[in-house]
Design a protein that fits this description.
Belongs to the class I-like SAM-binding methyltransferase superfamily. Trm1 family. This protein is α+β, with helices and mostly antiparallel strands. Strands 12-13-11-10-14-15-17-16 form an eight-stranded mixed beta sheet, sandwiched between helices. Strands 3-5-4 form a three-stranded antiparallel beta sheet. Helix 8 packs parallel to helix 9, helix 9 packs across helix 12 and helix 12 packs antiparallel against helix 13. The longest helix is centred in the last third of the chain and has 29 residues. It is globular and about 95 Å long.
Amino acid sequence: LDGLVVSEKVKSNNTDVKIPKSELEAEEKGAEEERPRESDSNILDVSSDYPRDKHISIQRHLADLEKLADLREDERKPCPLCPEEKFKACYSHKLRRHLQNLHWKVSVEFEGYRMCICHLSCRPVKPNLAGDQTLSKMGAHYHCIICSATIVRRTDMIGHINRHVNKGETESRFIPVRAPKSPYEVMKESATDVQVLPNHSTPQKTDSYFNPKMKLNRQLIFCALAVLAGERKPIECLDAFGATGIMGLQWAKHLRSSVKVTINDCNENSVTMIKENCHLNKMKVKVNIKEEDNDETVENREDNGDTIEVTEMDANVVMHLRSFDFIHLDPFGTSVNYLDSAFRNVRNLGIVSLTSTDISSLYAKAQHVALRHYGCNIVRTEYYKELAARTVIAAVTRAAARCNKGIEVLLAVALEHSVLVVVRVLRGPTPADDSAKKVRYLIHCQWCEERVFQKEGNMVEENPYQQLPCDCHGSMPGKTAVLLGPLWSGALFNTGFLRRMLLEAVQYGLDEAQPLLKTLICEAECTTPKHFSTHSPGDENKQEECGVYIRTSNTSAESCLVHGKRKSEEVLRGPAKRQRAEHSAEHPPFYYNIHRHSIKGMNMPKLNKFLNYLSEAGYRVSRTHFDPMGVRTNAPLAQFKTVLIKYSAPTYVGAQAEGPVHLPGEIHVGEEAPAAAAIKVEEAEVAEDDKSGVAAAEFTQSHPTHCAAD
């Protein structure tokens, strides 16, 4: 055993193992070499938060990137993100400036991390004309922190990250999350909490669309449901497009046992989120969908006021299978595809509300789409918002008539992003015929924007321009008017229903809906706000709607309507018809914009003063929610302009107060009716012509020589 030294004895299985000395020295030398390698690995792994497979171009701080380069003043160091051919090794001050200006300043930030630009050969470079792949500017790229993709341009990288966020992909498999946080964001509205995804405001890219700007829309729908719940209880209501379930949760949380809420959505992820939001608001869930594991129907607990039924099916299917007292449709875009199903099984005297968000077609920006969806020809006018509301109601009327049902419009509101329509359903062919007769065509003058609904009847008129109050066809060449429609020609509001909605808004503290409801009541009655009263002109406890009396909660329970049927219909119809005869006239259709018809070089009067001037002239007048500078009045456009000119002051008279500008042949406000005033204008013009003729004759007799010379 020459050359062998026994340095250690290891007892294993009661045997002695002899290790040569040369092997021990090699092991000690290898252990000394491993120590600096371990230190080098500690330099590369600058943060314990990063896993080993994370790309080195993704860092949290600039100091981490400098540590990665291992800056030492006495040695030349290469850039860790650039190849040796592109950036040669240099001293620390120059390398630090290179890292800051070339890599860090052009990085893309995401949740506290920086994806710096990388010039390494991670991404293959396109070969040049010579055929070799030389490093060029095209070799620069970014590494995605989520999917490890390589993107060349910074703007493309930002868009790539945004697409991940819109899809809900915010966690990276390269970044370990020690304390995983919930991907949901909790939002609160009207004492109701809902969980939403970070991309909740993008309807095309999310399963749970939630728009905070539609809060006013949800409050109006809640007030309408609260009024219906006061007439009869309990009522079955459906939110056909639940998304996050915010609307159905508000119904169940505030109205409690008065309503039986069903929230439906065809998307599985949305249904899951609706269930979570129900538990978040301490509501019980009743599910009627079949699970994948077992085909049994799941029903949770007993059915009471705190229970919400959640269904997962198409909206048309759920409305065909069951009957409801209140249905709300709020799809993404138009709702015409769901109207037939909504009116098929809705109960008598029930309410259907729909929110249409296809503004581009309804506001006449895409006229061909409006013709395809609504079968209506429209153009851009000064009253385009009311035109959109009447277009939707016309489609609703035709859908209800196909099911032998009529409608009464309770509310029609055109907001910035949507058009809300609330109608009451009247069962029977007679109401259906009465409603269908109110769908007419509109004659619109393209020169002066005067408008009038076409008269009833099927006979073709020889000259339809005669129906317009203006004479643009006689004074202008060519065709001056266009036929719009078919449109709803009836009233857009029910005053009694709006007053009860206002009471519900006050009761539940819906501050945003109260000013709009007051404006709608004044618009429905065609009065100015100073004449607004919270009490109806008739009996406070009775409202005439749909040919029957609707009594409020102050009356006895025997006279209330119960569960979709008319009680003692013969008794109710008689007083209702007498009440209808005494009811005031409907509000005038459409409105005029005071700025659109202003006179150049004249200062207009204040809007509220102008309303008083029109009212003193004997016309009905009110403001409108469709246009902040709009005036709803039954005055023709010619009389509207006459009063506007009369009380406008010239622009160059700065110190002159607002007052009447006296024009020949004008209307004296408050003295004559419009017809008498028009006759007097004509007589004044004839008298003025006679006076000018007499004066000319006298001048000829007194100066015969001058006249002969002329």
